[in-house]
Amino acid sequence: MLKRIVGLAAFSLLFLAAGCSEKSSQPELTDTPNFTEEFGGYTATDETAGFGDPELVATEAEEEEIDDDIVLQPEVVSVMTNPRSSWFHLRAVWGQLRLNPDQTELTDWTGHLSLNSASGAVVVRRLIRFEPGQDHLVLSPSHERARVDWVSFTSIHNDGIAVDLIVPPLPPILDTTWNVPEEGDSTIVSIDTIGYQPIELTFETGPYTCSFTLEELATLDTIVFVDEDSNAVALHAYQWHPNSCPRGVLAGRWGYDQNGNGVFAGLWRSRAGVVSGYLKGHYGLNEQGEKVFFGKWIDRNGKFQGFLRGFYDLHPHSEVQNSLSKCIGWFAGKIFNADRNEIGVLGGRCGATQSWPGGWFQGRWKTYCAALPEIDNGIGNLDDGF
Length: 386
Prior knowledge:
The chain is mostly beta strands and 386 residues long.
């Protein structure tokens, strides 16, 4: 079992919008990408695992699953088994979101994640592109369960971490006032309820620090540039509980193939962050001049899961001089089943480079609790900002 110990060998990340990666194995397209058919020419057929792309399958090794022994602490077991506890999953990535061979200077991202609730817990699930001998988790001297520390340095690419956040319900604080009248011996007791200070998660590193309330975590989908060298922090999170609709994260590579076609391919991760499938697709302008994307989602064995269709656009960052940072954007779309019924949504951030596979995307997805959104009874559809 891997432990939270000083010198823990760390291991081997990700984010989408279209835009602006060395040749490798790109998602296969016809000579001209299809932007006219309902789902971009994709069919509801099964595929070979990973769309037959060994390099796509190999990207799973960029992240190392962590068996965090903090879950064995009695206090954490109590929080995790409390049906009223709130659960969140957070994915944070920092550094060069798109591969940038020109960025050779190291940036120190040593820092921590912490909840301002001593009874909460931060459980490490994955380390993203941590390099052995350089990047590692750090044992807290007081074995704090609501905090995790790390040592991380990046240059041409990025590091990151995926964690579960568990927060128990907080009882109100009762403030009691005793009033004794001058006449008589009766006593009046006044009890007022005082709310707690909002629980927040803090992400703290040398280049960038921020805090989020639980409400903000439930809808978190953001990217922040921290310097003119294109270093950035990408943050995605969502709330979940045992009865919530299926949801998770997706991440991978987004760029242009040797013919200049916009293509993407990545990993589809379940609620717990485990790889449950793959996605691939293409993006570009349709006949109406709209920035659109089409794609296909399969499970780990290649079985068809859904069509993907939506829009993307750029968010130019005029304050950043480095041209790589001017092509960061967003994507948002819907998921459809083989019968062409809408069954879910997806969205996130992205950025492309002209050579494959230098670009990246990262985002969130969820499917509805019922087969169709119009008959969904709302159970488990948390306010997640889609």
